[in-house]
Write a structure and sequence with these properties.
252 residues; mainly alpha; 8 helices
């Protein structure tokens, strides 16, 4: 693509402005959730959904208005043996995520470990059936929109503007993806950065964003199911760590 002023603005927003804005906005919303304010968590979910879809619509509208095609953004599936191998790997990853979620949810000791690890992020996870359904919508939104942002747009931008090689652009985009989750703290940045790199590998294999979109959505949905079970199921005395801070809290 030939870079346009819009591209530079969009990159700065995605890589710096939005993460910093979200950091402070989510901290304020988290305080309201922890204070027990009704509908506060649902409000956070609605903000996620509206912001990400609005950004995606503007980004795609500008992309096509500038005469660019869908395939250069990774929106057109690519044929070939390597692509099918990538889709097969995607299916394996999704199956492993579902299996892991089912195993953890059925194991009180595993749930106790999750309660202990999710203390700082408990405000994100659903605590009611209604919140769980909304969290699924957030997960699908993140799977579609964030893959367009980070594995699609940011990679193309880095290659076009700086001449960054494809794999180096994928690594940098994963770092940007990690920073976009700065509200999760340093560990969250590293974790999501690594996950972003895994999604980029799926993109590289298939030549399409559809594979990482699916894996991303499944990962978030299963995480929500685990967090929901950890936060809503009463811990057993033998499985729960003493004084676990999430014993009665709603979980993400």
């Amino acid at each position: 693509m030939t870079p346009h002023l819009f591209d530079h603005i969009a990159f700065i927003l995605l890589a710096a402005v939005f993460p910093v804005w979200d950091y402070f906005a989510i901290r304020r919303r988290a305080a309201r959730i922890r204070a027990g304010e009704p509908e506060a968590r649902l409000g956070l979910y609605r903000i996620f959904i509206v912001e990400e879809w609005a950004t995606t619509i503007v980004l795609l509208a500008a992309w096509f208005a500038l005469g660019r095609d869908a395939s250069s953004l990774g929106l057109v599936p690519r044929p070939g043996l390597l692509a099918w191998a990538g889709y097969g790997l995607t299916a394996v990853i999704c199956a492993a995520l579902v299996f892991q979620a089912v195993t953890i949810v059925r194991n009180p000791k595993s749930l106790a470990n999750v309660r202990d690890k999710l203390t700082s992020l408990s405000f994100l996870f659903p605590g009611t059936p209604r919140e769980r359904r909304m969290f699924d919508a957030v997960s699908v939104t993140a799977g579609i929109c964030e893959e367009i942002f980070f594995r699609g747009y940011v990679v193309v931008y880095l290659m076009a503007v700086f001449g960054t090689p494809f794999w180096a652009a994928g690594l940098i985009s994963s770092l940007v993806f990690g920073f976009a989750h700065v509200y999760q703290g340093p560990t969250g940045i590293l974790r999501t950065g690594f996950v972003g790199l895994m999604f980029f590998v799926l993109y590289a294999l298939t030549g399409s964003l559809w594979a990482p979109m699916i894996a991303h959505a499944v990962m978030d949905i299963t995480s929500g199911r685990i967090g929901y079970a950890a936060g809503t199921r009463p811990p057993t005395p033998s499985a729960s760590p003493a004084g676990s801070p999430l014993q009665a809290a709603a979980s993400d």
